[in-house]
Here is the input.
Amino acid sequence: MILVDTTVVIDFLRNRSNPKSELFKRILAAEVQFGFSAFTMQEVLQGSKTPSEFLRMTNYFNAYPIIYPDQSSGTYICAASLYADLRRVGVTIRNSMDTLIAATAIINDMPLLHNDRDFDAIAAKFPALRILDPEGNC
Here is the structure.
C-alpha cells in the first residue's frame, strides 16, 4: 500500500498536472492500493473554503483507507525524533505535520508519494522513509 501525501491530493483535486499528480492518476487507474494518513485528511479538510467543500472532501476521504497513528505514542515519538535529529544537523522542516506523515509511512512500512521537498530532506537522513519517484519506484 502507498501512502499519499497532502501535496499530491491537493494537486490532484485542483487538476494541477505535475509528475506526482500524474503518478497518482496512474495509481488510481491501475487500482494500486493506497491510503491517506489521518494527518493528510486533517490538512486537506482544514483547508476547505466552504461547508459544502468540507462535506465533499469528507466523503472523498471516507471512500479510501485512512491510516491512523498507532494506539501508543510511537508515531508521535518517531515524528519528534525525526524533527529533532534533522534540526541538530541544520535541517528545519517547515511543517511538523510532515514529520507525522513521514513517521506514519515509516512505522507502517509504506512508500510515500509526495510533492514536498521536506520529505526529501527527511528521507536523505532517514532511509527508512521510502519515497516514490515519478515513475513509481522507491
Notes: The chain has a mean pLDDT of 94.
